[in-house]
Amino acid sequence: MFQGFKEFISRGNVIDLAVGVIIGGAFAPIVKTLADNVIMALIAAIFGKPNFDHVGEFVLNGAKVMPGTVITAIVNFLLIAVAVYFCIVVPMNKFRKTKEAEEVAEPSEDVALLTEIRDLLKRN
Length: 124
What we know:
Helix 2 (about 10-45) crosses helix 3. A hairpin with a 2-residue loop joins strand 1 and strand 2 (about 65). By secondary structure, this protein is mainly alpha-helical. It is about 80% helix and about 5% strand. A two-stranded antiparallel sheet has the order 1-2.
């Protein structure tokens, strides 16, 4: 039983998932601050309110129905997705491409040795 659990925990994808959850939890306040204090402030400057909660608001049998809260949640989601994409995904993709280009530029020791042998055979 413990051996199976140890094998499960040892898998790379479980460890990657755990690291992702921890990093995501640590990164969440940064994204929330960016969305609340920058992007929503810009929305408030344009529309007069920092959210759409009261758009389409009506009362039905004494209950307040606020469909604008769904719009606010959708806008918040899209803004956070845009912030994560442009602040994390795009820079990481550029970093990976740069790293891959460096790896391609420098051949491994095996390739370098084989290239050297090929060049020596051509000379002879």
